[in-house]
Amino acid sequence: MDDGGSRIRRRVSLPKRKRPSLGRIFVAPTAAELERGDEKEEEMVAENRRRKTAGLIPVEHNDSEEDMFGDYDSFTENSFIAEADDLEQKYMQLPEHQKHATDFATENLCSESIKNKLSVTPIGNLTELQTDKHTENQSGYEDVTDEPGADLLYDVPSSQAMYFENLQNASNDFGDQFMKERDGRSSSHNTVNEELPHNCIEQPQQNDESSSKVRTSSDINRRTSIKDHLKSTMTGNAKAQTPVFSRSKQLKETLLSEEINVAKKTIESSSNDLGPFYSLPSKVRDLYVQLKGIEKLYEWQHTCLTLKSVQERKNLIYSLPTSGGKTLVAEILMLQELLCSRKDVLMILPYVAIVQEKISGLSSFGIELGFFVEEYAGSKGRFPPTKRREKKSLYIATIEKGHSLVNSLIETGRIDSLGLVVVDELHMIGEGSRGAILEMTLAKILYTSKTTQIIGMSATLNNVEDLQKFLQAEYYTSQFRPVELKEYLKINDTIYEIDSKAENGITFSRFLNYKYSDTLKKMDPDHLVALVTEVIPNYSCLVFCPSKKNCENVAEMICKFLSKEYLKHKEKEKCEVINNLKNIGNGNLCPVLKRTIPFGVAYHHSGLTSDERKLLEEAYSTGVLCLFTCTSTLAAGVNLPARRVILRAPYVAMEFLKRNQYKQMIGRAGRAGIDTIGESILILQEKDKQQVLELITRPLENCYSHLVQEFTKGIQTLFLSLIGLKIATNLDDIYHFMNGTFFGVQQNILLKEKSLWEITVESLRYLTEKGLVQKDTIYKSEEEVQHNFHITKLGRASFKGTIDLAYCDILYRDLKKGLEGLVLESLLHLIYLTTPYDLVSQCNPDWMIYFRQFSQLSPAEQNVAAILGVSESFIGKKASGQAIRKKVDKDVVNRLYLSFVLYSLLKETSIWTVSEKFNMPRGYVQNLLTGAASFSSCVLHFCEELEEFWVYRALLVELTKKLTYCVKAELIPLMEVTGVLEGRAKQLYSAGYKSLMHLANANPEVLIRTIDHLSRRQAKQIVSSAKMLLHEKAEALQEEVEELLRLPSDFPGAVASATDEA
Description:
The chain is an alpha/beta fold. Among the domains are: 282-477, Rossmann fold, CATH 3.40.50; 485-697, 3-Layer(aba) Sandwich (Rossmann fold); 713-791, Arc Repressor Mutant, subunit A. It contains 50 helices and 24 strands. The strands form six sheets. Strands 15-14-13-22-19-16-18-17 form an eight-stranded mixed beta sheet. Strands 8-9-7-10-11-6-12 form a seven-stranded parallel beta sheet, sandwiched between helices. β23 and β24 (785-791) form a beta hairpin. α5 packs across α7 (172-186) and α35 runs antiparallel to α43. The radius of gyration is 35 Å and the shape is globular. The protein starts with 8 loop residues before the first strand and ends with a helix. Its EC number is 5.6.2.4. Residues 307-479 form the Helicase ATP-binding domain.
């Protein structure tokens, strides 16, 4: 506020030639100039253009060395130097100033600028320019209000500070005269105060004594432009050691690299237009229009973003129906945190596929706005994350990786650097072991950081009060949907509309008018063909089926009764889809898909490989495929909306449908911007009618904590990490922490037989008995005893490796036994040690295949089996059905079988070949591979904490990489890019894109023409992801170099030197 007047903030982004020069900002015009008005200004502009066209007159240099800045245009564009140079040239053109043009310009720059504090803050590629505008005079000139006491030299790098002081000393003869003239003139004009942000990088003011070391003659100052003087002075400083000035005793000698760094940031920073779009640069709004086609926010989104609780950075839970636009609000809040608050952000998503989809979508924003987007999923992610001094990071993680990330930040004391945590599908906090891990993550953040904001969102929340209490959060909800959703039930050939106002919840809608033959009635008793042909092929349709096998059967059945006309719809594009499926399957194609895709129909479930799923999803999104028969997992996965959603039966596998599941499935109906209406139809039999009527009217299920129910993955893992991270190390503190968890909030509901205190004591006793923690008893007095806990080496290894505590002692035993005779002639032994324990119980070996594979082992590989205690005779007897007297560990036998599958994968790399060899669904084989890669990463972190397992460290690094990508070595650099799977990597490699650098510099338009079945959106996402990854690697290397060159804080002479100075 100036004189109590209201401050008007005008955010400006001026072109180079339209920005006010320093002459207009710092120098008030004379009376003669005012009389000439616009005429004189037009002459100056014309002369300025001629000067820029003709180039600057050659100037003398004090130094014969090569100009270190050359003619680098951007050095003067939009910069302080350019404005100073324009000021000088302006006064060169005025007759009354020609005699001492340089001197007046210099004096004006030094004396006036000292009174007008100037500071620049680089924020990515943006710099905020806030203008407090009062009035402008009629002639168009602007003046600046003085700020006595502000010192320009305190805000600029030392090289510029010394230079400006020299100029000021050299121009003292003119200073008093000029200030008197200025004071006389400035009183007749209104003022404009332009202000730049104050969070600048400041250098201490230099004194006259030290600045005399680089004093130059006033004659040369008069002849040489300010820009060239600055360049010359900075070149001189590059060769000379920076002197230590008396007014900067407490600071270390500034290195040349830091001076140039500050200058570079100041020069390259552009107008910081923070504010127009929910406190974000207008560029963000433009990017949403350009990249996502979002031109306007929904009213609820605007309301949510402007909530008082959001502005005050309170925790928030918000709930809307599926497809309501929840994610956009979260993205804007994340961008605010990254760009405005300059803090890191963590986004937690439920599945790897969604993480990768989000990474691809936000990488373009990161490239344009100057922040990193890092993937934490599967075996990817660095712990602790790279500490960046300039750009901030957006971590996008699965639930498990998000927990590990938070642990590493707490351990390194960096949890406060995390400004915001966003949790999608917050209702998953009530789902099994993954819910327990999510609860642990949020509880630790709440306990250890008071500055981290938590935002949770979901479409299916009921007991919000419990979650609000746990997260200490505000709540916002709306029933908004961009497309109206109509819900129907189908019983026999009658369709009823769900109507909450009706007596029994439904009203008659219509009869199905579709002529069925006798054959069709037998094949399709549920009239699926009639229901889907009402919308396809012009609109899309999803049919949710109870099981994977049912998905495939329904897809084939529908295609049998579709007319031949459906084959002609986008025939060419469907042929491309089939060819691409063959390419990624090395010539293999699922026979079901081969028959259904020509009709625009496909199935979608976990039996597909990730390559196949991605390709089919792309084809569905572009309208090539119009019908998916799918399982319920699609409802919680990637966003694939449809005009009509059909639920084949009110069951998921053998269990009756839950209200939450029902809402998620029907939420896929209605595509914003495409459809005007969405429809859902639940098919049911008469016997299920009553249950279904209850289903559609009952409220959503409550979500309850699974922290205690999931014993080894829940409360014990939590206690181990609390002690390991020193968050809570005694019984009282651990109990206090537990009261703040979601379980603590719900303890009165969930605990019937035991109290929370008893459960806490029991869990700590279990950890002590397993040798994961040790108890220390401290006697504070004769009556008062305190029990403290500290973590053992095994406990730390388990917690760092995020190993399920049910298996940590088994893993330790297996690794220890492996050291006795580790077979390194092949990878089989290492693969066995990294085969996930939790998949073993699900394995049912085909004994004939097992025996066949066993008999083909090399002597070294047979030695591995012998060390593990599995003999060929045992497998042979099992294959022939003979009785076995010798007892063999079933888990070891099954685990070795899964190891054979993984070993074959690494040797052959083709999932199709291996799935046929072992008679397993190819999707299961790929899930096994993904699980092994993730577990291998966990075992690696486990071994890093135990000195005795040093031999495994280097071996497991390479094995983890092999399991993660499972392709030929040349394809690995391409597959590091998010969204590039094996099939796409092969296409890119064949087209000549053989490295990360190739992809980062690729033209998306060329990629579209070169790579089959690649959309423009996908091409842009691949290039953006590659650029992001390349920038991350380059930045990490740069920071490593700076760290190596920096003087250590514990350097022996540093403390003594600081004491002497004091």
